[in-house]
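Course assignment 3, question 2. Fill in each field.
Student: A.L.
Task: Predict the tertiary structure for the chain below.
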Amino acid sequence: MDDSAIAEIVGKQRSYFDLGNTRPVSFRLKQLKALKQAVIDNEKKISAALWSDMRKSEFEAYTTEIECVLCETERHIRNFQSWARPQKVPTPLIHFPASSYVYSEPFGVVLIIAPWNYPFHLTLLPLVGAITAGNCAVLKPSEIAPHTANAISTMVKENFDPSFITVVEGDAKTSQALLAQKFDYVFFTGGSNIGRIVMEACAKNLTPVTLELGGKSPCIVDKDINVEYTARRIAWGKFFNAGQTCVAPDYLLVHKDVKTQLLESMRKCVEQFYGKNPLQSPDYTRIVNEIHFNRILGLLKDGNIILGGDSNKDELYIAPTIIDNVSVEYKVMQEEIFGPVLPVMDYDDLTQAISLVNRLPKPLSLYFFSRNKKNQDRIQRETTSGGLCINDVVGQMVTSYLPFGGVGTSGFGNYHGRYSFDTFSHKKGVLKRGFLFDIKARYPPYGGRLRLLKRVLPYALR
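Answer field:
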C-alpha cells in the first residue's frame, strides 16, 4: 500500500472521528459487542490461521489468543461506562465557589502495531481499549504471521466501517509509511530495536506512544521451594509457544542447594508435557520462520546442553533446551532469547542473584520462587521490573486487574482492563467556577499584599 492510500485511510478516520461518531457510550458498547461476536464467529478460522503460521495447537490458540480477547472484551462491556464517567476531585479553597472534574476523552485516530508471537491476542487486545475510549483505529498486524494477519483483516472488513477500524497489511516499509502519518496515539508491541525506531518517528510528530517491548526476564529460584511445582511451572512458562513469549522466563538463577534436583524435575516435566520426542507432539509450537530459527540455533554454542538441543530445519523445530553452566558473557545472555532455550546459572546467596539481575537492563517481568516471606519482600523492594510474579510464571499478564507493561528498556505505558481504557484516553482536567463573588485581591495593582499572601496561600491551595 502506497503513502497516498495510507494517507487517505487516516484522513477518512479523522473525518469520522471529528463528526463525533465514536464518542457516544451507546456506540462504543455496540462496537465492543460486535467485536466479541466477530471473534466468536471466526474462532475456527483464527485457530486455523495460527496453526498455519506457527503450528500452534488448538488448545493454546484458544487459551492464549482467542479467550484472552473475549475475556477482555467482556470486562470492558461490563465496566467501561463507569470508567468513562467524569471523576469529581477536590478543589482548593482559593477557587471557591468551584468544582473540579477529570474527564476521559478519546485521543482521536490511533495506530496499533502488533507483533507475530501472539499475532491475534496482541493485535486485538489493545484494540479493545481503543474502542472503549472512543478512538478510531488503524491496525498493523505482523507480516511474519501472514495467515493470522489476513484472518484479522477479513474479520474487521466484514464487521466494521473502515472509517472506524481499518487493517493495513504489509511489511516494515508499510509500518514506516504508517508512522510517517500524524496519528493521535501509537501503541507498539515488539522488540526494543524496532521500539526505538517507532519512538523516533513519533517524536517527529510529538505523538504520544506506548511501547510494549521485552528483554531478558529472570527467574530466580530460592532453596526453600516446592521443587515439583516450581519445575512444572517454569517448564510450562518457558516452553509453551516454543518460548516465543515476551514474558517467558529468559534465564534461570537457581540456588546451588536445589539446582540438581530442580533441573532433573524440569527434565521430567518436559517429557510429561511433550513426550520423549517433542517433534511428534501435537502441543509443541514451531519457530515462526527460518530467520528466527537460525538466530536461536546460534545461541546454543556456549555452556552444557543438559536437555534438548536438537532441531529440524524443515519443520522449523527446536527442542525444549536447557543449558547449564552459563556465564553472563555468553551470547545467550546478551540478547532476549525468544525461543525454547533456557540458560541456567546458580548462586550461593540471594544478594548475589539480586546484584546480577540489577546489573542487566530492567526486565519486562521478574519471577521468584520461594516460601520465604522475607526473601519475597527483598525481591519486591530491591529489584525493578515491569511486573513481578512470585511462585508462578506468566500469571501477572493473564489478569485484567493488574497493569501490564515494561520499565526502562522493556518499554513504558501499560494496559489490560481499566488500564487499557486509561492508556487510550486523554485525562482532561476541568475547573468550573461560579459568579457568587470575586476576590479582587488577586488582581493588580498588588500594593503591599505579598506578606499577607504568603500567610494565606498555603491554606487556600490545599
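Instructor remarks: Residues 3-213+412-426 form a domain with the Aldehyde Dehydrogenase; Chain A, domain 1 fold (CATH 3.40.605.10). The mean pLDDT is 95.
Grade: pending
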